[in-house]
Write a structure and sequence with these properties.
Largest sheet: 6 strands, mixed
Pfam family, one: DUF5753
Structural class: alpha/beta
Helix content: 40-55%
Order of helices and strands: HHHHHHEHHHEHHEEEEHH
Protein name: Helix-turn-helix transcriptional regulator
Number of helices: 13
């Protein structure tokens, strides 16, 4: 049974605390690895929250860092235990981007730029099915359905009665013009996008082709921010074989500034909603 504890976020918080203890001790990751007879990459993965951490790992690290307060050790051990629990997404089997889902599940706000497709949180089921089947042609029907189910479950953050996700989406016009599935499916998708954009916590803006070159030409990315001040923001960049997570303040700041430029250059909210509605009408003209 999955619990309400978010293992991804717990691993991340635990990793941040272990990094803090190492730095207080004045040790490098390489020095810690030598003491514990493990690889430096393991220490790095534990600290960035990308690897499950056992209570034994915590005990060994606390020993190296000479943590004398047993309450601190007990707290870290409990975090390690919680971090090994399963989130809701584990019920669907091996989800390729499970780390991202864990972060998204706990995020307070999400800023997304997508130049090619409608973001997953705003997709209709038929659009999601056609998109996944087209993007992953060698995927078995059962696996496609599993991915669609995960995507639909993720959308519950938008409709949550308490503390819904604050979503800001900037789309390139190409995402609206690319016919995924068929024209009827696209009309329904864009009408749904207009409907969702009217929610108070959802903002949708469009960058039309006429704008020309703009700061988002390098590709899709998302910026996640969290309700707990101790959790630093994360920039997520999706890849084909692996994903990239940027957490350094300088990197997050650079992408945040770029996003502000995208917002400023895009059509405003009302103009964007009308722009999407007009394209939806074009799809209705079969």
């Amino acid at each position: 049974m999955a619990s309400n504890v978010n293992p991804t976020v717990r691993r991340r918080r635990l990793g941040q605390e272990l990094r803090r203890l190492r730095e207080l001790k004045g040790m490098t990751a390489e020095e810690v690895a030598e003491r514990l007879l493990v690889s430096q990459s393991k220490i790095s993965r534990l600290e960035n929250g990308r690897r499950s951490i056992s209570q034994r790992d915590v005990r060994d690290l606390c020993g190296v860092y000479e943590v004398e307060d047993q309450r601190v050790v007990d707290s870290l051990m409990q975090m390690a235990k919680d971090s090994r629990q399963q989130g809701w997404w584990h019920a669907f089997g091996d989800v390729p981007y499970s780390v991202y889902i864990g972060l998204e599940t706990d995020a307070a706000s999400l800023r997304v730029y997508d130049p090619q497709v409608v973001p997953g949180l705003l997709q209709t089921r038929p659009y999601a099915e056609a998109l996944i089947a087209g993007a992953l042609p060698e995927t078995m029907p059962g696996d496609i359905e599993k991915r669609v189910q995960v995507r639909m479950r993720r959308q519950e953050r938008i409709s949550a009665p308490e503390s819904p996700l604050r979503l800001w989406t900037v789309l390139d016009e190409a995402a609206l013009r690319r016919v995924v599935g068929n024209r009827s499916l696209m009309r329904e998708q864009l009408e749904y996008l207009v409907e969702q954009s009217q929610l108070p916590h959802v903002t949708v803006q469009v960058i039309p082709f006429d704008l020309g070159a703009h700061p988002g030409l390098n590709g899709q990315y998302a910026i996640l921010e969290f309700p707990d001040a101790s959790d630093s923001s994360v920039v997520y960049i999706e890849g084909v074989t692996s994903d990239l997570y940027l957490e350094k303040p300088a990197d997050v700041q650079k992408y945040s500034v770029m996003y502000e430029h995208l917002r400023a250059q895009a059509l405003n909210v009302d103009q964007s909603r009308q722009f999407i509605a007009d394209i939806a009408k074009d799809y209705a003209r079969l």
